[in-house]
Amino acid sequence: MIDSSDSDHGRLRRILGCGFTFTALAAVEPNIKTQVVRLCEILKKEARQGPVDLSKWFACFSFDVDPRRYTINKQVGGDLSLGESFLTMEKEENRYLFDAVGKAVKLVSLVEGPYQV
C-alpha cells in the first residue's frame, strides 16, 4: 500500500479502512485482551525458568489472536483470516507455521520483484 499509485492506494484504503473503524476495533478488543492475559501468564511461567525469548512468544501471540471474532465488512469477505486460532502458544508442534510463512513471504518477493512496474 505504501508504494502503490494514488488510485491503488485510495482503492486499498477504502477496502481495508472498514476494519479500522471504532466499531470494528471495539469488537476485537475483548479477544485481544484475553490473548494478552494468556501471553503474560506464559511469560511469567517462562521467566521463572530463566531468560525468555520474547521474539518467539510475540510471534506465537500474533498467530494465536483468534480471527473468528474479526469480522469486517461482509463485502470484503467476512473474517480477516483463516477462521481459527493456531494455538502456537500452547502447542509447540504448531510453530512450524513461522518458518512456512517466512518462506512464503520470501518466495512472493522473489517472484514479484522482477515484475514490479
How do the strands and helices of this protein lay out in sequence?
Elements: H1 6-17, H2 22-47, H3 54-64, H4 96-112
What descriptive keywords fit this protein?
117 residues; mainly alpha; 4 helices; 0% strand; single chain
Can I get a quick summary?
Helix content is 56%, strand content 0%.
What does this structure look like?
With 117 residues, the chain is mainly α. The chain has one domain. It is built from 4 helices and no strands. Helix 2 (22-47) runs antiparallel to helix 3. The longest helix is centred in the first third of the chain and has 26 residues, at 22-47. The protein is flat. Mean pLDDT is 75; it is low at 69-80.
Q: Judging from the principal axes of the Cα atoms, what is the shape?
A: flat
Order of helices and strands: HHHH
Question: How many H/I helices?
Answer: 4
Largest sheet: none
Strand content: under 5%
Number of domains: 1
Indicate the low-confidence ranges by residue numbers: 69-80
| Percent in helix | 55-70%
* Topology, number of strands: 0
Computed CA radius of gyration, to the nearest angstrom: 17 Å
- The secondary structure category is mainly alpha
